[in-house]
Design goal:
By secondary structure, the chain is mainly alpha-helical. Helix content is 80%, strand content 0%.
């Protein structure tokens, strides 16, 4: 436990670097694929993935979290959880096959059948990687995970771009989608060198199943609330419109999703080790929350200010109609940046039931808003989505923090510096637009506008608001961890307290 701080900082830096690489790869792929394919190609695949993405929530059965969070876990328990994941993955693959003709009839699009059948194979592959990935997270081997994730993303991008260049259309997207889990599964199996044994009874996995089941139900409810609009837009407005909405939604969430995944994985591992140390738990959580929002807030505001130029540079001229959708979704993404990290607080403390109850309130709120905006097209949906999430922000924060070591004042204090700095930087960038609009190159406008906002924001954040301490503390932690190495692949069970415990 004494080296937890260094391991957390080192792992966090590795995950951030990995997400930066992932962002570059996905961003480059988005730029290339958007120019090689048509909006209808993306919309066609989105019609399937909106449903198969829902099925994918069940692959882990929520059983990766208890593997990470449990104070100790035996090899027999891990093996039993592995085979439960395989069973669930097989069932989902069969269910996906059954769904294929239903989707064809629902959308009136026969090409969806073989797309759905192909994607079905990924469920078993993903299931085979759940526990191996959880083992790496449990032992905070985030550098290894980062390398594996980057390689799997690189393989997917290469396959997708090559097939798109060769004229395979929407099949290029499908191939990229199925390539990534194969490479990832191979990577985590090789890194852990763990071979599961046969499943066993009487190994006390019921509490884990209860934990995982509640977490899975929470994910299901949230997924339905956050993704139903894609199904409805595809059904009512068609593949072209869904393609525009889907690309805008993906592009606006690119930076923030990657950041939350990077910091969230490390935070959950570290905070799970600090369940019984309230002071350190509070300190670790607030520093992680501050870090995420200090990057999320300026990025999202910049996207709102320069939405037209971002779409022009990233997607090209045939995606111009996506700019208004992109801009209207920015409040939603900003709220996500503030509320998603609160899950790091609830899960390590065992408050997964509260998370589920919150989801049961949030999902209907979003669905009602989407239905209200649906007759007005994708811009109406985007506006309604953002309005609902903005209204929900304060109740969500108070509900999550109730009875925890973190108070609303703590959270406000952690975010006040980045919020003030981002607001001032945004005002200056907005004023600079009057001069930048005279430039004909959208790329040059982005570069100059981004430079103005970045310099202003960083200057205020580090010199005026007093927010330098968390970052300097992180740098000191990195210096202290520079001589420490990640556990070797062959020593994944290095800290087990007995021959049976992991």
């Amino acid at each position: 436990m004494k080296d937890l701080k260094q391991r957390t900082i080192r792992g966090g830096l590795a995950r951030l670097c990995g997400q930066a690489a992932d962002f570059v790869l996905r961003f480059a792929s988005l730029i290339v694929m958007a120019r090689l394919l048509e909006p209808a190609d993306f919309g066609l695949v989105a019609m399937v993935t909106a449903i198969t993405g829902f099925y994918a929530l069940f692959v882990s059965a929520g059983l990766s979290a208890p593997t990470i969070q449990a104070p100790s876990i035996t090899d027999q328990q891990l093996s039993t959880l592995f085979w439960i994941n395989i069973l669930v993955g097989t069932i989902l693959a069969v269910l996906c096959l059954i769904t294929a003709p239903i989707l064809v009839k629902f959308y009136g699009e026969p090409r969806l059948f073989w797309v759905t059948v192909t994607i079905a194979t990924g469920f078993i592959i993903n299931a085979a990687a759940v526990q191996h990935s959880a083992i790496l997270q449990r032992h905070m081997r985030h550098i290894t995970l980062t390398v594996i994730e980057t390689l799997s993303q690189l393989a997917a991008v290469l396959v997708g771009v090559i097939l798109a260049v060769r004229g395979f259309g929407y099949w290029a997207i499908v191939a990229a989608t199925t390539t990534s889990p194969v490479v990832y599964a191979i990577g985590v199996w090789g890194a852990t060198r763990w071979i599961p044994g046969p499943p066993q009874r009487g190994v006390q996995i019921r509490p884990m199943l209860r934990f995982g089941g509640t977490l899975m139900l929470n994910s299901v409810v949230v997924y339905v609330g956050y993704n139903l609009e894609k199904v409805l837009i595809g059904r009512l407005w068609g593949a072209d419109v869904l393609g525009l909405y889907g690309r805008a939604y993906q592009l606006i969430r690119f930076p923030t999703d990657g950041l939350n995944v990077a910091v969230g994985g490390v935070a959950f591992s570290a905070l799970s080790r600090l369940q019984n140390e309230p002071a350190r738990f509070r300190s670790y959580f607030l520093k992680g929350y501050c870090l995420v929002n200090s990057l999320t807030l300026p990025t999202t505001i910049f996207c709102a200010l320069f939405g037209d130029d971002i779409i022009a540079v990233c997607l090209g001229p045939k995606w111009t109609d996506a700019a208004s959708i992109f801009r209207l979704l920015t409040p939603t993404v900003m709220v996500f940046g503030m509320i998603n990290p609160l899950l790091w607080l609830l899960l390590p403390l065992g408050l997964y039931g509260r998370g589920f109850r919150i989801a049961l309130v949030l999902a209907p709120l979003v669905i009602v808003a989407v239905v209200i905006g649906l007759p007005y097209g994708p811009t109406g949906v985007a506006f309604a989505y953002s309005a609902a999430m903005t209204l929900w922000l304060v109740p969500h924060i108070f509900w999550c923090l109730h009875g925890t070591p973190i108070s609303p004042r703590d959270l406000l204090s952690a975010i006040s510096g980045p919020l003030i700095a981002a607001a001032v930087a945004a005002a200056l960038s907005f004023a600079a637009q009057f001069y930048l609009d005279q430039l004909t190159s959208p790329l040059l406008r982005l570069a100059l506008g981004g430079g103005v906002m970045a310099v202003t924001y960083l200057s205020l954040l580090l010199l005026i608001t007093g927010q330098d301490n968390p970052y300097l503390d992180t740098l000191r932690g990195l210096k202290g961890a520079s001589d420490a190495g990640e556990p070797r692949a062959g020593s994944m069970f290095h800290d087990r307290p007995s021959g049976r415990d992991i």
